[in-house]
Amino acid sequence: MEPGVDKLTYEIFSILESKFLFGYDDATKLFSSPNAAGSPAATAVASTGASGKATPVRVLPAETGKVCILSIDGGGRAADGLLAGAALVLLESSLRRRTGDDRARLADFFDVAAGSGAGGVLAAMLVARGPDGRPLFSAADALAFLLRSLNNRHHRGGGGSWSSSSSSGGGLMRALLFRRGGGAAAFRKVFGDLTLRDTVRPVLVPCYDLGTAGPFLFSRADAVETRAYDFHLRDVCAATCAGADGAAVEVRSCDGSTRIAAVGGGVALGNPTAAAITHVLNNKREFPLAGGVEDLLVVSIGSGEGGGGGCGAAASSSEIVRIAAEGVADMVDQAVAMAFGHNRTSNYIRIQATGTPRAGNNKGSGGGGESLAAEEMLSQKNVESVLFRGKKVAEQTNAEKLERFAHELVKERDRRRTSPLSPAVVKSTAPGSDSGAHQPPPASYSNLVSHMLTSIM
Fold first, then answer.
1. Which residue range or ranges hold the PNPLA domain (predicted)?
2. 219 - beta bridge partners?
3. Which of 18, 116, 149, 161 is catalytic?
4. For labeling, which of 133, 188, 203, 453 is most exposed (least CB within 10 Å)?
């Protein structure tokens, strides 16, 4: 197939897929970025009216930059969060080295952070705002929190196997959460009374609400609009990690008017990448210049692939849930990769492990085995989607992908320093102010996204 025809086929495919995945009502929005204007499909979809005359595509000013999105998976095993934690430490270290700023934090380079389950805890820690207005935690702080939690589980006799499933005590964060209230105390110690409003960047964290029988997305955009959707970060983390042994966690908004009977985000939305992209592309108040996927830089970090039982072995109900959740996460990756199409290699990367790390099988390692296993996963080459050609083994290791993405993040930050146009214009609201006090509360953005996700699932 000729390259030009292949590109045209992709763009037609993207038009058909845009409404399904990202909720566009107007397919031409997919090509509103400067790079897409003038393409054959963009010219085709610009034609209007019975006259058959083509209407020129509106071209945004050049060099408007890209919105940078961080998405972190959640799951149901003891390994949850450790691959992501190690990847985030590596990425933050690379950013500091490239910029020469030892105080640089990931939140300085990303415009949105989304996370599910243990990934939700990591995302919340990375964007929590300290008293000085700076991010409260570094990536190393977040990883240390996960490792301490896992070490505490080892000391309680929770087992040392890396591939321990939820049937033998639950995932890392679930084990922490249901330690006779110890999880709630741990989250309170980390976040105190900080709420969704008290973040330096927009944050998105999903759970499943048993009360409405549908996904619920905790969002700073909603929290800024009205107190009815502002939750304490400690409760957000409890909600996205809930669900061990079928138990739900009830959380209430800061004003007490909204109640969520939550089970974990890993069950409802283990891979929140599509939700994060949808949030950016439809939230014109905060991201007015984000017109399509070409205006995004997205890194999606998986929770690691489980080893699973042997062939023909009887699977427990929790193991079946885990397999189903990982399958959905992979399908989200497949759909997002296809949506990015020819921009996949430059604008979207997926960090994921394959198989069970050998280093994690050492019992009684006191956390050392987990650290080695995380490093081993970073050295792997994962399987990635290829446009119209299924999947293949990536050419770069996970660590090499992160180094390449760090270069793109630094380049985007430098571009913003010299250009008056920024793709991310985040609405600022003073902590504690209630912007919804003098106006009727708007329809919840999380409900809009939940409806979209339910239709996709």
1. 70-277
2. 204
3. 116
4. 133
Asked if 194 and 203 count as a contact pair (C-beta separation under 8 A), the reply is no
Run of H or E residues at 424: none
pTM for the structure as a whole:
0.75
Whether the CB-CB separation of 389 and 370 falls below 8 Å is answered with no
Parallel/antiparallel/unpaired status of strands 383-385 and 391-393: antiparallel
C-alpha to C-alpha distance for 291 and 281, rounded to whole angstroms: 6
Could you confirm whether 39 is annotated as catalytic? no
Q: In this structure, what DSSP letter does residue 295 have?
A: G
Six token digits for residue 132: 């000085």
23 in Cβ contact with 282 (< 8 Å): yes
pLDDT tens per residue across span 245-272: 557 889 999 999 999 999 886 666 889 9
pLDDT tens, position by position, 171-213: 555 555 444 344 678 899 999 999 999 999 999 999 999 999 8
Asked whether 291 and 33 are in contact (CB, 8 A), the reply is yes
Which helix (H) or strand (E) is 232 found in, with range?
Answer: none
Two tokens at 149? 């939690």
